[in-house]
Amino acid sequence: MRTRRWVCTYPAADNPAGLDLAPVPVSWSYSQADGYVQTQRRVRILRHADGVVLHDTGMQATASSTYTTPTLPSDVEVRVEVSIVTNAPGTPTVGPASRRLTSSYASPMAPEVTLEQGEGCIVVAIVNPAPTGSRPDVELNVIERREAGGDFAQIGTSPPDEPYLDYSVASRAQYDYRVIGVAP
What pTM, to 2 d.p., does this model score? Predict the structure, then answer.
């Protein structure tokens, strides 16, 4: 009996946190005690909820153990399946091995917000972090406010990294603020 080892090396687990890439690099390793190696691969991407095939490379002659997916749908769980063929006699097909991925890249990074008391106003200080992965830049920040326990309502907008001055607050009232970065 041959000893085979087939491992998906990236991602190392299903649905890794913080995955913000549109195309995702996938890698795997295969080793066998008798020295047989991968000669072909097939990568399929399926929507996990219903099994619909979104992408299929078909079998490709390659020893490469990496593949960069095409752009994945944002915030949709997919399953990436990799099957390989080796030069081992008898049982050359291995897999499929699979990983579930949910890439989230359509919205900008969440802004960092601090509130300060200004002269007759509340200063909503906003810092928009540089985007990571495939996330877009912020074009505009939408500022929302609610009285404690109420519903949020938009009160204004500001350019990236610019403060918003809220002059329409009542004294002794308690407010919650929310800032949402909007992409172009």
Answer: 0.74
